[in-house]
Amino acid sequence: MIIASNVVKKFGKLKALDDVSVNCEKGQCIALIGPNGSGKTTFIKCILGMVVPDTGFITFKGNNILHNWVYRDEIGYMPQIGRYPENMTIGQVLKMMKDIRNSKKELDEELVESFGLNDLLQKRMRTLSGGTRQKVSAALAFLFNPSVLILDEPTAGLDPVAAEILKAKITKEKQLGKLVLVTSHILSDLDDLVTQIIYMQDGKLLFLKSIEDLRTETGEEKLARAIARVMTNN
Amino acid sequence: MRKIIKYVTVDILRNRIVLVYTAFLLITSLSVFALENNSTKGLLTLLNVILLVVPLVSLIFSTIYVYNSAEFIELLVSQPLRRKTIWLSLYTGLASAMSIAFFIGAGIPLLLNHADTSGFLMIGVGLLLSIIFVGIAMLAAVKTRDKAKGIGVAILLWLYFSLLFDGLVLFLLFQFADYPLEKPMIGISALNPIDMGRILIMLQMDVAAMLGYTGAVFKEFFGSPTGIGFVFIVLLLWVFIPLWLSVRNFNSKDL
Q1: pTM of the entire structure?
Q2: Any CB–CB contact under 8 A between B243 and chain A?
């Protein structure tokens, strides 16, 4: 569904992405794992077209995404730090996004309800706590029933209840055959969620493995331990 | 595109600076015409105020606005929207807000007090300068990542167009005083939209006689329909070239 071929991105001297090639298929739930600054967010931004690769290309359902924008209709993106117009209320932001997307598909307002955002519609974005902001981002990512979900640190800053709601929602969408790309440092959150692991370091993609392979190779049941073993072996 | 323009315009109108700017222009132009019993003198005073204030406010306000909308732009870029659409909507919103402010603040008093060719020309020049400097501001904002640096660049650009450019021209004139520079001066003045506007209106008001021989050459050129056409073409180029460059830059910008 999403194919990246030899993507290179430099910021000045820093190589944020170094020859990354990957193939993501429908129904997979892929975790992007790696130390801070390993290029996870840059890679996600490349897929979204927010960062333009220096060389290499990315295709979405067979079409090159360069200078294309229609494909983003099928993507729900939850940024690491959700930044919204500060003077708008939650209600206005939701309304504006619905207006801009003008989606004919049925809206999925499950998260808006389960996060209790309906009671906060009058609150201005600048007064929100980090966690509430994350809730708005998550609700927006799922709102338009996209076939691809890209979640950058979805559970960071969420309280345990909200994090569980979100994880349940991700599992549900995965079972509907959607492609989910998720980055997180809280590996225990990913244990029963992901099917594939991408491990990145210094902008390089070190491996893409299914979680079963990783477990058998390292002999560890828990993802956190398996990854720790990989990191120390490197 | 219409939807984004709507959201941008609503957001700008909520900003009080534009209202203050409109009120300032309105008070200045009304009082200038009320103080001077000779309305041509009033026009000349107003011309100087407009040529100083309009580029300044358009430049600084637009630059700050673009930086403050960084979140909004980021949000929009991750949506199924063409980047060009996002950028042009932002431009349209800013340009129309600045133009409306100018028209209410200076255009209406001008129409009331001085509804002749020079009055109309002045409204035209003011509107063109408003949108030219919105374009230049957006180019400065897309080129520099850092907000403080971007605003600094905008202020420097204003200084250049309003003050430094004239100084440079004067320097050139003195250095090459022995050569006939009158005709090349027409070309040089095209490098500054503010000067273009100033010359055009001054020559309409018959004060060209004070400009000596250069004034006579200017009068001959800018006083003719070809000259006025030339000025408007140059000003339109000043509208489109910075805008086109900024769109090109924004299309490949990393957010």
Answers
A1: 0.88
A2: no
